[in-house]
Fold these 4 entries.
Entry 1:
Amino acid sequence: MVRQQHERHGDRVALVTGAGSGIGRATALAFARSGARVVVADIARPSGEETVSLIAGEGGSAVFVPVDVADAASVEAMVAAAVAHYGRIDCAFNNAGILPVKARTAECSEDDWDRTIAVNLKGVWLCMKHEIRQMLAQGGGAIVNASSVAGLKGYALTSPYVASKHAIVGLTRTAAIEYGPDNIRVNAVCPGAVMTDLVRGLGTSVQSLEGRPMARYAEPEEIAAAVLWLCSDEASFVTGSALPIDGGLSAQ
Ligand code: NAD
C-alpha cells in the first residue's frame, strides 16, 4: 500500500458517491492511501466494484454500495449500509453527477432538465440529508460537494448543468451555516475541465483550452487532493467555501 506521509485520514471512514469513475475513483483511492476506510458508492456496479478492487490491491479497505443518488430510499439505504459496515461516516464527497445533452436553453428537453437536476442537485441534497443525520449522531464530520466552475460562471448549451452546479454552491453555504455549531463542515469544490469519461463524452478537443491561464486539463488526482484537504484537520476552520480548482479559469 502506497501510504501518504501522514496518513491524515487514518481511522476515518470516507463515503464517495460516483466513485466508480473519474474524480470519484481518484478521490476514493486517495482517501484509502491516506488511511481511511472507504465506502465506494455508484449507480454502476462493475465500475464501483473495480474501484474497490483497486483499493484492495493496494492493501486498503473499501466496500461497494450501490446507489442512485436521485432516489431518496436508495440514498437512505446507502448511508445505512455505510454505517452498518464501518460504524460511522467522517468524510463524505457527494460527487456523482451527469451532463445533459448539449442544447440551448429553449431547446433543452424537459426530460434532460429533470434528470440533470434530480441527479446533480436533488442527489447532493439527499446525500447531505442522510449524512448530516449520521454526523449529528456521532458528533461531527466533513462534507464536500462537487460543484464546478460551471457553478461560478455561465456556460452555453448546458443550462440544467449550470443551474444545478450554481445551486450546489448555495446549498453548501446554507448547510455550512446551519451545521457549523454541530462540528460539521460543508464545502464545495469547483473543478475546471478534468479529463474523465464525463468530458470525453463531450468530444471536447484540446484546442478548446487555448486562451485559458493553464491550457491543460486537470488530473482527477488534483481534485482529489483538494477534497482530502477540505476533509482534513488542516482545514478545520474552512466551511461554506466554494473552492475553484480550475487553473485560473474562473479568474478570467
Ligand atoms: P464521470 O462520468 O467520470 O463519473 C461520474 C460517476 O458518477 C460515474 O461512475 C457514474 O456511474 C456515477 N453516477 C452517475 N449517475 C449516478 C447516480 N444517479 N447515482 C450514483 N452514481 C451516479 O464524471 P467526473 O468527470 O468524474 O465528474 C464527477 C463530478 O465532478 C460530477 O459531479 C461533475 O459534474 C463534476 N465535475 C466534473 C468536471 C470535469 O471536467 N470532469 C468539471 C467540474 C465538475
Entry 2:
Amino acid sequence: MKRILLVLTVLLAKSLLLSQAVTYNNFYPGKIWKDNNGVAINAHGGGFLYFEGTYYWFGEHKIAGPAGNRAMVGVHVYSSKDLYNWNDRGIALHVSDDPNSEIVKGCVIERPKVVYNKKTNKFVMWFHLELKGKGYSAARAAVATADNVTGPYIYLRSYRPNAYKWPVNATASDTMEAAGGDSTLLKLPGEERAEAGYFLRRDYPKGQMARDLTIFQDGDKAFLIYSSEENYTMNIAELSEDYTSFTGKWCRLLIGGHNEAPAMFKYEGKYYLITSGCTGWAPNAARSAVAASILGPWKSLGNPCVGPDNALTFHSQSTYVLKVQGKKNAFIFIADRWHPQNPIDGRYIWLPIQFNNEGKIVIKWKDEWNLNFFNKN
Ligand code: DGJ
C-alpha cells in the first residue's frame, strides 16, 4: 500500500512539474501560449517570416525578474505551419560572452525582425540595439545575417542611419539652423523642436537615432521603419540591395508625433502603419496612418482599436502585422502585453484586422478566435 502511494505521489508530482504540450485550434489573446514542449513561448517584440510553407516567429528571449528585459540569451525562434501551434527552434542569435562585442550579454536587443534576401540567399535580421550599461542612449539599428532561417545569425554591425543624408521630404528650413542658432530652440518642448528640425540637424553628421523598429519588404526592396529624434519622429529608410545597409533614401513622418512600436503592412496597394505612443512599458492608445507611397506623404488615421480598453490597446503595444498566407486581405495585429517586473511572463495579443468603409483599420478585442474569421470577410 505504502509503495503504491509513493508511486502515485511521484507520478502526480511529475505531472504537475512537467510542462504539458497542448494542441491549439484557436488564438487566445493574453493567455499563456505554450510551444510543442509545453513551455510558454518566449519571443517578445516579435517579427515573423513566411518561408517555404512555414511561418517563423522571432522574438526577444526574456528571463524572469526585473533584469529580464536585458538580453541574457538572445533572439528565440519558433516555427509553425498553422499559426496556432509553434515548435521551439532554439536561439537564432546568441548574445556574446566577449565584453568587446556590441551584443555582449546584458545589452538590450529589442524587436528583432527577419527578411529573406533572394539575391544573396541570406536571412537578414534587424533589431534595436542598446549597448550594455548605457541605458537607451545608443539608439542603434543592428543587423545580423544567416544562411539558414533559424540561424545561427552572425552579428554584422550597428548603425545610426543616414549620416550626412537629408530625408527626401526635407524642407529648405529643415536643413538650415534656426535664426540666432539652434541653441535658441532648446527652450521649446520636444515636439516643437522636432518640427523645427532641431534633432534632424543635430544628428545629421552622426546619423539619426534608431530605437523601436520594424522591417517592411515591398517586392525586392526592404525598408527599415524606426523611432528617431528622441522618439519624437518616425523614419522610413530604404535598405541596400543586400538589406544590410542603407541606400541613403529616407523620409521623416509623424514629425513630433512621439510614436514607437511600428508595424507595417500593405492592403489594396496602400501602406498602413500602426504605432503606439511613448510611455515606456505601460500601454497607451495605438495610432494608425496610411500612405499611397512608402516614403510618404503619410496621413494619420487615429486609434484603430475599438471597444473597451481601446485607449490602452487592450493593455498591449503593437509589434507586427502578419499577413496570413492563402487568404485574401487577412492580416493579424500582433502586440505585446509587457510584464516589466517579470518580463518572461509577457503575453501576446493577436487580433484580426478589419477595415471600415472609409478605409480605416479596425481592431476589436476577442477572447478567442481563429482563422475562419477571415472567411466571413
Ligand atoms: C517601449 C518599447 O516599445 C519597447 O520596445 C521598449 O523599448 C520599452 N519602451 C522600454 O521602456
Entry 3:
Amino acid sequence: MKPLTIAIDGHSSTGKSTLAKQLAKALGYVYVDSGAMYRAVALNALRNGWVSKESGAQASKINAHVEVLVIDFELDQKGVNTTLLNGEVVEEAIRTMEVSNVVSHVAKLVPVRRHLVALQQAMGENGGVVMDGRDIGTVVFPNAELKIFMTASDEVRAKRRKAELDAKGQVHSLQDVLENLKSRDKADMERADSPLIAAEDAVTLDNSSITREEQFQRVLGWVEDLQK
Ligand code: CDP
C-alpha cells in the first residue's frame, strides 16, 4: 500500500504534535515538526540579537543567514524526536516562552519560509510522513491524502501549554501563556505569505472536550478508510 502523506495544521497548542507523533508511531511513518524548524531559526536570531518581542525581526540579517543554518532531527536514546541546530541539540531551548514570543516575527519572512518549505518538502518526498505546522496542507503538501485542521478553546489551549511549561520548570502566568497563544495565532493568520488557514479539503478537529485517546482512534479510523 502506498504510504500516505498526513498534514496536520491548526492553532497554537492544539495538540498537533501529540497527535502527529502518535500517528507516526502507529503507522511507522516519519514525523516532522515544522514548527520546531521555525523555532530553531528564531532561536538563532535571538542569540544574535536580530529579533525581539517589541521591535520585531531584523529581516535582512535573518534572511541572509537562514540558508547556512543546518536544521535537522534525530531520535534521542529514548526514541524521542529531537531538534538539532548546527549539530547542537536545541529541543529544550526552542520551547521557551522567549522563543515563543518572537517566532511569529521570524516565520513571516518570505525567504525563511521559502527555505524551510523546501527542506520540509524534501523530508516528505517519499510519503509515509506526518508533518504538523500551519501551512502543511495548503503550501508544503497541497496533495496530502489526509489533511487535519486542529483547534480547541482558548482556555483549554492555555491550560495545556502552561502545564507543559510548568513540567519543565518554566513558570509563567496563565495570562501570559494565553496572550502568547493569541498573539501568535493572530500573527500567523494575518501574515501575507502562507497564512494559517484550513485547506479547503481539510477535516476540522476540535479537541476541546475529547481525550487524546478518543482523538487518536477517530483519526486512525480516517486513515484506515483511506487505505481501504
Ligand atoms: O507548539 P505550537 O503549536 O505553539 O507552535 P509550533 O508548531 O511550534 O510553531 C511555532 C510557530 O512557528 C508558529 O506560531 C508559527 O509562527 C510558526 N510556524 C509556521 O509559520 N509555519 C509552520 N508550518 C509551522 C510553524
Entry 4:
Amino acid sequence: MKVYINGQFFSKEDAKVSVYDHGLLYGDGVFEGIRVYHNKVFKLKEHVDRLYESAQTIMLKIPFSKEEMTAAVVEAVRQNPYEDAYIRLVVTRGVGSLGLDPNKCAKPQIIIIVDKITLYSSETYRRGMEIITVATRRNLQEALNPRIKSLNYLNNIMAKMEAIHAGFEEAIMLNQNGFVAECTGDNIFIVKEESLVTPSLENGFLDGITRRTVMDLAVGKGLRVVEKTLSRHDLYVADECFLTGTAAGVVPVVKIDGRTIGSGEPGKHTLELSRAYDQLTQKEGVPVPRTAKV
Ligand code: PXG
C-alpha cells in the first residue's frame, strides 16, 4: 500500500507527519472520505468541491487547483492495487509552532490514503439496524458549522461512544432545538406515506453527497422528496427509515429508541433506493487508468 504525502508516495510504515502539524495538535484541517467502485472514483468532483468549500470557510488555502487535486487523487488510487477502495483525502493546516495561530503554519499538508473500509456487517444490511438517539447534541452551527468536514470529529465520536456504550451501532444526533440532525457519520431519511423525507439543511448537519445522490434517485423514481424539520416523533411513526453515507452506502433502520419502524424489516423504498444506489456506483465515476490488469 502506498500513501501520498505532499506529492510523494510512501509505504504505509514510512507514511509519517510531524507532531507539530496543527491537524494533530488542534484538529485544524479538513477531509473527505471517497469511494472507488469497480476501478472508478465515485462522485469525485462533488467531494473535491466540498473539500474546497470546507477549506474556504476555515481560511485554509489549498496549494493545488481543483484539477491538480483531482489528478493527485486518481494517481493515488492508481498506485494501489484495489478495484474497490476507500480514499481518505486530508488537508491539514500544516507544521507550525505551539499555539493556535494558523498563520504560524508554513504550508498545508496534503495526505491521500487508499485503503479498505467496512463499517457494518452484511447481516446489518440484510436485517436492518437498530439505533438510538443520544444526549450529545450536534455542534451548534454558530460555533462550528457541521457543514465543514473538519478534522474535529469529537462531537461525533462522543455520540458514537454513547451508542456503543448502550449496545447499539449508531446514534441519532439532535440539534440544539431537539430536532433531528443526522447520525455520527451518516445522514438520515424516512419514508412517510410514499414521500421520502429528510432533515432540511438549517437543522445543522453535513450536507452529504450520498444524501443528494439518493434524493436524485428518488426523484427519478417518481417519489416525492421533502426536506423539512423532523422531530423524534416523526421518526417513530415513519413507514421506513434508512441512513446514507459514503462509507456505509444505504443502511436500513428497523428500530429507533425501541420503537419498531414500519413492519420491522427493511422497507420497500429503502431496498429499491439501496439497489439503485449500488447500480449507480458500478456505472458512474472517474476511471483510474491502469497499465496492467489489477
Ligand atoms: N454526516 C457526517 C457527520 C459524516 O461524517 C456523512 C454525514 C455522509 O456524507 P457523505 O458525503 O459521505 O454521503 C458523513 C460522512 C468514516 C467515514 O471514516 C465517514 C464518512 C464518510 C466516509 C468515511 O467513518 N462520513
